[in-house]
């Protein structure tokens, strides 16, 4: 790949951080307004999540006919997904196709990590600096750096002494890994662990799974794309996208439930859960009744149904009990979808190790040791231990503003010390002209992510267009609006069962991270209506102006 940096325009209308699904759509959409844009991507290829997460079994847990861009009907008609759920290579291929089809690559600079972003208040410019020292000045900055993009390896002692190889799910080697004949340890049983464990088990000589918290997983029922289903879906694609926008998860095709789980007799309820279990997919299961995510007693019925499935699948009763989650209601942590996950524990070469009762203490030269003194000999360790979610990517960049007229100096890491603060998940008070895509306060991670990406980027594009049409060049969220939004996000979460789980939604997987509920769980439909009404009403909660006016106030 030729080094484009010395050809790059140093002065842009919009600098975009990230070349994944969000950054790429932002290029397309903002270019359409006649703006000069450029995305800066740390990876050596585009695709973000789908570029980095190449572990065995990596695939999306939202069906591909839904998990795809909707902005071009021609694109959604012509692209063919080979399976119900896209694999990582298929999704990456799709993203590359989109980049070529819409000529996006010329505005993506690869191998370029942004290390700082400083708003020069007097000049009204964002000044971004790359790790190699290149400087980019831009009127607006769009942070499209992802929300599960900062891989995290727990701070175990001794990792440097380990003589075998170790991997993180989110930094997987491009050439793949052959575990044949090896003694492998997988640490972590979130979505990544649940997807990779069955496949690593098929290769490894022996697999030890180190589980701290059991997660609920449902069968994906993946398979080749059904041609008739694809034809029907494509015939109604536009209507389906419109219908999806009117749902909490931004996914069409699931009838809204009308009854509480407690209004239904046990036998009928279990039949309903069985039908959803056979159908596969998490939305469908959680949509069985109206109140599974808000009423603990209702949720217990759905949780117990899955626990019983686990008990019926896993032959060793002790292993089955360990795998049956008891510390959080189903759906309050990201619900996993799997292919043969629980069945894998019936293999002779797979052992589940409970590191809740006996935590991992040290990585040794030849494996690992628990606090209770159990030792495990391993040739390879796989960390499926997740990410510094929602805030990690932005906090890795030194985001600040200079001192200046009309805007006071601010440092994002300080502003977010007690937890992230945003207005609508889109802007941060004190940081003018910087937009965030699917960050904290956005419904993104609780929805079909690409729908939220498109909605946010459209909102941002409309906002910049609005400013330009009014001769304005500065927009900033007010501290009051930001505070009110954060309170609303937490109030909505508190009206549900979500806060009962120690999940990355509240930063619980990162020791010391402030416990704040980060995603907006009020639903995509509600968020879309609200954020668009705010724009239509003259951007309530934002201060719009010109930087000349700000200077005049000096
Ligand atoms: P995750 O859900 O955060 O899971 C991390 C796992 O590592 C948890 O089981 C966690 O246990 C464990 N862990 C962390 N630190 C540990 C320690 N010190 N000792 C023992 N265990 C430890 O991460 P993930 O599986 O990578 O998934 C993150 C998110 O990415 C998902 O929720 C999903 O939104 C997305 N994702 C989606 C897909 C998909 O579409 N199919 C696939 C992968 C990821 P605790 O629970 O006890 O903290």
Can you give a write-up of this model?
It is a single chain. Helix 10 packs antiparallel against helix 11 (317-323) and helix 15 packs parallel to helix 17 (524-536). 49% of the residues are buried. The protein is globular. Strands 1, 2, 3, 4, 5, 6, 17 and 18 form an eight-stranded mixed sheet that branches. A five-stranded parallel sheet has the order 7-16-8-9-12, covered by helices on one side. The chain has 554 residues and is of the alpha/beta class. It is 32% helix and 17% strand. The protein has 18 helices and 20 strands. The model is unreliable at 1-5 (pLDDT under 50). The chain has helices at residues 21-31, 49-52, 73-78, 88-101, 191-203, 227-235, 237-244, 266-279, 282-286, 296-313, 317-323, 341-344, 392-395, 412-415, 449-469, 479-494, 524-536, 547-552; strands spanning 11-17, 37-40, 108-109, 114-120, 125-130, 135-143, 165-168, 183-187, 206-211, 217-219, 336-338, 350-354, 360-364, 367-370, 375-377, 380-383, 398-401, 434-436, 474-477, 542-545. Residues 60-61, 148, 154, 169, 187-193, 195, 210, 212-213, 334, 355, 360, 384-387, 445, 504, 509 line the site of NADP nicotinamide-adenine-dinucleotide phosphate (NAP). NADP nicotinamide-adenine-dinucleotide phosphate is lined by residues 60-61, 148, 154, 169, 187-193, 195, 210, 212-213, 334, 355, 360, 384-387, 445, 504, 509.
């Amino acid at each position: 790949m030729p080094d484009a940096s010395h050809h790059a325009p140093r002065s842009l209308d919009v600098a975009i951080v990230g070349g994944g699904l969000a950054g790429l759509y932002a290029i397309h959409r903002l270019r359409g307004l006649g703006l000069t844009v450029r995305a800066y991507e740390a990876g050596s290829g585009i695709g973000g999540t789908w570029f980095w997460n190449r572990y065995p079994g990596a695939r999306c847990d939202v069906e591909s006919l839904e998990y795809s861009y909707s902005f071009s009907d021609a694109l959604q008609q012509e692209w063919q997904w080979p399976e119900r759920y896209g694999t990582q290579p298929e999704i990456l291929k799709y993203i590359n196709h989109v980049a070529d089809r819409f000529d996006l690559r010329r505005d993506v600079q690869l191998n370029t990590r942004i290390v700082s972003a400083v708003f020069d208040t007097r000049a009204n410019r964002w000044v971004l600096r790359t790790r190699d020292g290149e400087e980019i000045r831009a009127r607006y900055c769009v942070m499209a750096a992802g929300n599960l993009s900062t891989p995290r390896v727990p701070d175990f002692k001794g990792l440097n002494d380990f003589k075998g190889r170790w991997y993180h799910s989110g930094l997987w080697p491009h050439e793949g890994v052959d575990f044949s004949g090896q003694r492998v340890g997988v640490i972590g049983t979130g979505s990544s662990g649940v997807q990779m464990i069955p496949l690593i088990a098929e290769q490894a000589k022996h697999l030890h799974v180190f589980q701290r918290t059991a997660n609920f997983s449902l069968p994906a029922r993946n398979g080749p794309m059904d041609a008739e289903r694809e034809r029907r879906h494509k015939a109604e694609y536009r209507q389906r996208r419109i219908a999806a926008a009117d749902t909490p998860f931004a996914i069409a095709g699931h009838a809204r439930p009308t009854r509480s789980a407690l209004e239904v007799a046990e036998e009928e309820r279990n039949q309903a859960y069985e039908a959803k279990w056979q159908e596969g997919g998490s939305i469908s299961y959680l949509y069985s009744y109206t109140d599974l995510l808000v009423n603990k007693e209702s949720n217990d019925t759905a949780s117990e149904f899955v626990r019983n499935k686990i008990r019926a699948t896993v032959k060793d009763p002790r292993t089955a009990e360990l795998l049956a989650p008891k510390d959080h209601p189903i759906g309050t942590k990201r619900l996993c979808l799997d292919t043969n996950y629980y069945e894998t524990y019936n293999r002779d070469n797979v052992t589940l190790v409970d590191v809740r009762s006996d935590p991992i203490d040290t990585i040794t030269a030849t494996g690992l040791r628990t606090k209770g003194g159990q030792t495990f000999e391993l040739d390879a360790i796989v960390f499926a231990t997740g990410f510094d979610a929602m805030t990690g990517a932005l906090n890795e960049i030194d985001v600040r503003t200079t001192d200046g007229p009309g805007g006071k100096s601010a440092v994002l890491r300080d502003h977010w010390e007690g937890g992230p603060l945003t207005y609508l998940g889109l802007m941060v008070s004190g940081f003018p002209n910087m937009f965030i895509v699917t960050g904290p306060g956005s419904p993104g991670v609780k929805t079909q992510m690409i729908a939220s990406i498109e909605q946010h980027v459209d909102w941002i594009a409309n906002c910049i267009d609005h400013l330009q049409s009014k001769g304005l060049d500065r927009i900033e969220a007010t501290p009051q609006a930001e505070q009110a939004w954060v309170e609303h996000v937490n109030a909505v979460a508190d009206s549900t069962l979500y806060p009962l789980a120690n999940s990355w939604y509240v930063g619980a997987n990162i020791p010391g991270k402030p416990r704040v509920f980060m995603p907006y769980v009020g639903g995509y439909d509600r968020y879309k209506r609200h954020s668009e009404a705010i724009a239509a009403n003259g951007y309530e909660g934002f201060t719009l102006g010109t930087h000349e006016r700000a200077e005049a106030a000096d």
